[in-house]
Design goal:
The protein is of the alpha/beta class and about 400 residues long. It is built from 14 helices and 21 strands. It binds ligand PMT.
Length: about 400
């Protein structure tokens, strides 16, 4: 479930902070991207440098420190994170977030975060049993925050009591069972397409585009995390597919169409993130075309529009297309939604250089037949994939 998941790890001031180094390392081992936010008192127990060394990311400790004047760090982290993990959470830090206090880097970033939050307390047993802490924990539970209660064990005070933070291994195990995108697509068979198809001109040349496969591979990860059985039909890409996906590698748009048709009847959802060639050479030369002094004219013909072909055989499958546009984004996207008989469309403006083809980010509108559902800012393809899976799960028959 952690593959490519963005985890914001909040560390507050408890002796258990040393365990969060192991936690960060283990999350990374499982494929998560980890960024750490520390309170001032946490830094008395463990240094930011230790976390930075493990995560390869700068640790956020000071709300006034903005290295890039175009960015607002706490908002960036809030938007970036798929999950916020607060471990260890002290009684003081719990009290702050239960009451919406934002007076340092950690509490301010958390207050700006709308995504899932998991809180792992660590404190003295009397603090844990204090009515104020009990009130705060109940408030956080009502706010939808998942709490992994402390365990009984040997405390730093030198005696045994309930207040000890649970071990990193157990935190990860519990996160897996509680959060694996909440089994949103449990039992669903999902086809995801990715990458840019290649239309061969001769044995060594082809027509293609700049699609890297990042968007489709991230969707495959997100669908797997949501419990789906995923077939990833990929045009050439340098990426490694999730080992849980059934990978079908294809080259041309015709190969992709055949692979989709072979699997479509047995599937519940098709997500077409691939950049499929619209044209292919009319003829293929068996031998490498020799150059001469004249211009070379290659005549192109239209490829099949795969989504239009799929629309002809579609029964109750939920079909999602993408629209990559450089102008009139919404207008063109809505027209594609209709013409291709789609249930949902992800429209992305690929005119900027920070988004779209071969970028780590996209900026999209989610559209269905009722109009625009929602829009994102510039977000990681992982985040967009998680949002997409959630929206699909809300629209399919369970
Ligand atoms: O792979 P990345 O580097 O991460 O880049 C991601 C992306 C920009 C490729 C992706 O986000 C994206 O927008 N994919 C769709 C690109 C595209 O081909 O858009 P389109 O507007 O030309 O096509 C609309 C839809 O029809 C798409 O779902 C496409 O898969 C499908 N199509 C297109 C042509 C064709 N012959 N048959 C199709 O089914």
């Amino acid at each position: 479930m952690f593959n490519n998941l963005n985890v914001a790890l909040y560390v507050s001031g408890s002796i258990a902070a040393y365990k969060s180094l192991t936690l960060a390392r283990d999350l990374i081992k499982q494929g998560a991207n980890v960024r750490v936010i520390m309170t001032n008192s946490a830094q008395l127990f463990v240094t930011p440098l230790a976390f930075q060394t493990l995560t390869k990311n700068k640790v956020f400790t000071d709300i006034s420190e903005e290295p890039d004047e175009k960015e607002i760090t706490h908002i960036n982290i809030a938007k970036w994170s798929d999950i916020s993990l607060i471990a260890p959470a002290t009684a003081n830090f719990i009290s702050k977030i239960a009451n919406g206090i934002a007076d340092d880097a950690a509490s301010t970033t958390l207050l700006a975060t709308s995504g899932k939050k998991v809180l792992v307390p660590a404190m003295n047993d009397n603090m844990w049993n204090n009515p104020a802490t009990i009130r705060n924990i109940n408030t956080l539970k009502n706010d939808g925050i998942i709490i992994f209660s402390p365990t009984k064990g040997y405390l730093a005070e030198g005696y045994s009591g309930k207040g000890r933070m649970i071990e990193p291994e157990l935190i990860i195990e519990k996160m897996e069972s509680k959060l694996s995108n909440n089994h949103l697509l449990e039992g669903k068979r999902v086809i995801v397409t990715a990458g840019g198809t290649r239309e061969s001109i001769d044995p060594v040349r082809y027509i293609s585009n700049n699609s890297s496969g990042k968007m489709g591979y991230a969707i495959a990860d997100a669908a797997i995390n949501a419990g789906a059985d995923v077939t990833l039909i990929s045009a050439p890409s340098k990426l490694n597919a999730n080992y849980k996906a059934r990978l079908i590698s294809v080259n041309s748009s015709a190969d992709m169409e055949n692979a989709i048709k072979d699997n479509f009847y047995q599937s519940d959802i098709l997500i077409m993130a691939a950049a499929v060639s619209d044209y292919k050479p009319v003829s293929y030369s068996d031998q490498k075309i020799k150059k001469n002094d004249d211009n070379l004219v290659i005549k192109l013909s239209r490829t099949n529009d795969i989504l239009k072909e799929i629309a002809k055989i579609k029964s109750d499958q939920f079909v999602v297309g993408f629209a990559a546009e450089t102008q009139n984004l919404i207008e063109n996207a809505k027209s594609k939604l209709q013409h291709k008989n789609l249930d949902m469309l992800v429209a992305n403006d690929v005119s900027g250089d920070k988004v779209g083809f071969n970028s780590d980010n996209n900026k999209v509108y989610f559209i269905d037949n009722n109009g625009i559902i929602s829009q994102t800012g510039i977000e990681s393809k992982q985040k967009i994939s998680n949002d997409l899976i959630k929206l699909i799960s809300e629209r399919i028959d369970k």
